[in-house]
Amino acid sequence: MTSDAEPFLYDIGKRADYVGLGHEEQVEHIKAYVCKPSSVTDKAVIVIHDIYGWQFPDIRYITDLVAAEGYVAVCPDFFLGKKPWTSADHWAKFGDWLKDRDPAKVDREADVVLKYLKEQCSAKKIGVVGFSWGGMAVHHLMLKNPEFKTGVSLYGIIRDSDDRYDLLNPTFFIFGGKDHTISYDQIILLEKKLKQYCQVEYRIKVYPGQVHGFAELKPEDMKPGDKPYIEEARKDMMNWLKTYVQSSL
Predict the structure, then answer these.
(1) Interval 57-109: pLDDT, tens
(2) Cα-atom radius of gyration of the chain, to the nearest Å?
(3) What separation in angstroms does the CA of 75 have from each of 36, 58, 103?
(4) Considering the entire predicted model, what is its pTM?
(5) DSSP-based three-state secondary structure for 46
(6) What Å distances lie between residue 68 and 14, 39, 43, 123, 127, CA to CA?
(7) Which residues, other chains included, contact 200 with Cβ-Cβ below 8 Å and sequence gap of 6+?
(8) Nearest to 136 by CA among 152, 122, 118
(9) How far apart are CA 111 and CA 166, in angstroms?
(10) Which of 28, 60, 95, 131 is deepest in the core (most CB within 10 A)?
């Protein structure tokens, strides 16, 4: 990555007025946001949204960022038109809301998007990244779908499955050290079980002092002490993709 690209990489964040550089497409039964790089490529990345959905400005900004690194980037609506979570919703109702938005039931949609990327975009090497809810979906896909070259799960792990450690593809797990939704004990258990059962490359990294969603914080919400970790996580994500999607591995 060139030095000219670094300011773009480090400036990811929530932007209420961000429209996006890509466009919306209908991919069979799924609506999707698609952004393509300036040059022709056979490499692609699926970006899976968090609970706030595929139209949220910050997830589109990240999708554009991925495209700027040389990938066809697509963010599909894995809620299939169902209402995303909003800041006005009450957390007491989150469990009911989640019942028909299971991150471990995205296989059909993932296959549809993979088909689109291969047939319509000539993609041959495809990775996937996901945030929170999307991070759990990435963990699931890394257990089930060998077509992906790699995955990056940002603060999302599957917790209620005994067979969640035998990954099929190289996977990078990113966590915040002060995440209220994922305890340090859960991260330690994940690392212990992956060492025991996983036969592919994986990495777990905890960023000290960081809360859930830290890698998506808007610039005005970044504390000076947190900014280096936020930038580091974003750069680590891109480097992982470069290793397993851009390279000839």
Answers:
(1) 888 888 998 999 999 999 999 999 999 999 899 999 999 999 999 999 999 99
(2) 17
(3) 12, 12, 15
(4) 0.91
(5) strand
(6) 18, 10, 12, 16, 15
(7) 167, 168, 169, 170, 171
(8) 152
(9) 20
(10) 131
